[in-house]
Amino acid sequence: MRLGMLTPSSNTVLEPTTAAMLAATPGITAHFARLRVLGIALGEAATAQFDPAAMVAAAELLADARVDAICWNGTSGAWLGPAADRAIAEAVTAATAIPATTATLALFAALRLAGARRVALVTPYLATVQAAILATLAAEGFDTVAERHLDDPGNFSFALHEETHIAALLRETAAAQPDAIIVHCTNFRGTRLAPTIEAETGTLVLDSIALALWGALRAARGDPRRIRGWGRLFVLGT
Fold it and tell me: Over the range 122-153, which residues count as b (16 or more CB within 10 Å of their CB) and which as e?
């Protein structure tokens, strides 16, 4: 099985992390196409980075590798709204005839499968972006009971935040006893923390890099349970 990942150009975390998650599953490989994303903010210039036309152009190159699914391995739909991500997925599938999804669409699917309604949110984003994500979560029916953000405009700089700092943020939000903690940024080092925080707190951790892989596997009709040791996400729905 080959999974295609549409990747922000300045991202340095998601590719090695995805490879690590797939290291024990030699029958599944991930393949990456980049599109330009340099900063995360609200406004026309920043939003233009996520034009479906750019996604389609990159997806058509992934289609040459005969991938079984394509995932937008970015989180823009969290602040632009899920309709924006559905438009990307629909445009990619229309152009390539390959099933498509996104990290944010996978997030909402995972939350609903888990029956999670009270959530915590941890990101590196600016306050304005964080507020837009909180509004999206509310519109989708989720109550955010704790949040932390780092006011970083990114995107390259998101990768510079240490796991120890991110772990502290997760532990802080876990104190509010949410049903799930969302770590939503695919250039942020939250993926490896999920099993540890889940074991410590009993709270489901949904990291966006893991969500992108989980969503891509589901879109390709694969079995996410084959990914072991990376948290409870990969057994949701079983």
Answer: bbbbbeebbebbbebbeeeebebbbbbbbebe
* Domains contained in the chain, CATH given: 2-105+209-231 (3.40.50.12500), 108-207 (3.40.50.1860)
What amino acid occupies position 94?
A
Please answer whether residues 197 and 167 qualify as being in contact, where contact means their C-beta atoms are separated by less than 8 angstroms. yes
pLDDT in tens, 217-235: 999 999 999 999 999 999 9
pLDDT, tens only, 123-147:
999 999 999 999 999 999 999 999 9
Query: What's the full length of the chain, in residues?
Result: 238
Residue 43 tokens, joined: 């406004």
Q: Taking Cα atoms as reference points, which of 234, 107, 74, 105 lies closest to residue 181?
A: 107
Burial class (CB in 10 A: 0-12, 13-18, 19+), 53: exposed
pTM of the model: 0.97
